[in-house]
């Protein structure tokens, strides 16, 4: 049986397609939460984030692959989308950190990449979407 929240509401799809900032929440090995503001990419089905193997966020994902992230309309913080999901894959970024460079261009903030050798791409498969408009949950079509 499919949950009524397993489908991304069309009304909030743009929040993933545009370069909004995601608040990615993971669980630390001691069970406490950690949330970080991050860039992300969306291919219509999966979200992709980049981080490094040397940071706490990576250790968190190795410990617990379930995550959640939220985004909001930049001009209207009462229009939000929460995405819950699971890490589907972790892969090295290319030698020149091509995915990270693509995110820099998406967010119009290009600079030298000094950590390409430890940079990874984390792919998240969404399992639940919760869209909110002015305090009310938006039901998927």
UniProtKB/TrEMBL annotation:
InterPro entries: F420-binding_dom_put, F420H2_bilvrd_red/Heme_oxyg, Pyridox_Oxase_N, Split_barrel_FMN-bd. It holds the Pfam family PNPOx_N. The keyword Ion transport does not apply. It comes from the Bacteria. Residues 9-127 form the Pyridoxamine 5'-phosphate oxidase N-terminal domain. Transmembrane segments: none annotated. Keywords: Oxidoreductase. One of its GO terms (molecular function) is oxidoreductase activity, acting on the CH-CH group of donors. GO terms for cellular component: cytosol. Gene3D superfamilies: Electron Transport, Fmn-binding Protein, Chain A. This is Pyridoxamine 5'-phosphate oxidase-related protein FMN-binding. It comes from Nostocoides japonicum T1-X7.
């Amino acid at each position: 049986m499919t949950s009524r929240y397993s489908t991304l509401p069309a009304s909030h799809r743009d929040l993933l397609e545009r370069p909004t900032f995601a608040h990615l929440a993971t669980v630390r090995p001691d069970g406490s939460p950690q949330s970080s503001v991050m860039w992300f990419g969306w291919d219509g089905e999966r979200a992709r984030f980049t981080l490094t193997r040397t940071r706490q966020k990576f250790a968190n994902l190795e410990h617990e692959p379930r995550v959640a992230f939220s985004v909001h309309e930049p001009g209207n913080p009462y229009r939000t989308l929460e995405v819950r999901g699971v890490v589907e894959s972790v892969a090295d970024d290319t030698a020149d950190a091509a995915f990270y460079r693509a995110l820099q261009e998406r967010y119009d903030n290009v600079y030298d990449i000094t950590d390409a050798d430890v940079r990874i791409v984390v792919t998240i498969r969404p399992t639940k979407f919760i869209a909110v408009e002015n305090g009310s949950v938006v039901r998927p079509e």
